[in-house]
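Worked example 3. Consider a protein that binds iron/sulfur cluster.
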Amino acid sequence: MRMEEDLRLSSILIDWYNINKRDLPWRNTTDPYLIWLSEVILQQTRVDQGYAYFNKFVETYPTVELLANAEEDEVLKLWQGLGYYSRARNLYSTAKFIVNEYNGVFPSEYKDVLNLKGIGEYTAAAIVSFAYNQPYAVVDGNVYRVLSRIFAIDEPIDNGRGKRVFNELAMVLLDKSNAGIHNQAIMEFGSLQCTPVSPNCADCPASTLCLAYAQGEVSRYPVKIGKVKNRNRYFNYFDIRVGDFMYLHKRTDKDIWQGLYELPLVESERSLTNDELCGVKGFRDLFPTGEIRVRHITQMKHVLSHQTIYATFYQVEIPGNLLIDEKYLKIKIEEVDLYPVSRLSHKYLEAL
Ligand code: SF4
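Given these inputs, the predicted complex is written out as structure tokens:
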């Protein structure tokens, strides 16, 4: 996407948010203390359960000083039932730290917020963007899901490299002058519209930009290492040469290498012998008549992120009067370099 398109996505999400957002109490404030409180409560907690706890905490400790001056037991008691008690202990000790080190004023610099105990990159970005509109993009599970689908990103979200890719993309897409609302919007969009199961693609304002939707592969995203199943595929390529000419085919299906050229291909369920190959339908469609001589040339294994391609290349001699379907492009052999091909095809053509 280019700059204008980045902003277009952001404005689609913000427009959607203004119409569809839930009215949640922590959305009606720019007080960093209350935003922090809500973010800590909502970690590992459903919104409906977090709602009641947030209200209880705000009533009991409306300021960071009041929280810092409480007894730890009191804070833990109020937290009771939410689980993951280290969150409550960090909340309490961080409140004391803010009172002692920052005179009770919540820090506003991203790096200072990130240094607070119990606050990671996501929470720091949420606090400084919601409270101060600072240009830091939040990346939580919702954001991973939305971005991985809209951009059909195959990078797994559960490794270091994937996290960097998504963080960088989220920063590029962030509407820097509306960081707070942009961040709220993309997370809410992931919670309500682009949900993990049964996203509402049929009525989605981002569907025209969404590559996963265009490819019919929404359920494939986001990719997780634990989830990735490798698929073996068997490609039989035919190098058909007639005098100075050869044939290519353009891949147009929503599949790997869409838009690239390759030799005429018959895909099979498994590896085939020459005799088996001559009997399959794809082969008979390609060479409907005549005496075809097929010679096995080479085999190559090509590993992609979720697929392993076992490719077998055959050289084919055809009778001069055999017509090859028009969907195959007849080109001059010396011009083959002009066509974009996959790395696999390139390796084969180069080896020749
Ligand atoms: S079209 Fe579907 S997958 Fe794509 S952004 Fe919209 S809801 Fe999510």
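Take a moment to read the result before moving on. The chain has 15 helices and seven strands. The pocket of iron/sulfur cluster is lined by residues 149-150, 193-194, 199-201, 204, 206-207, 210, 212-213, 218 (CB under 6 Å).
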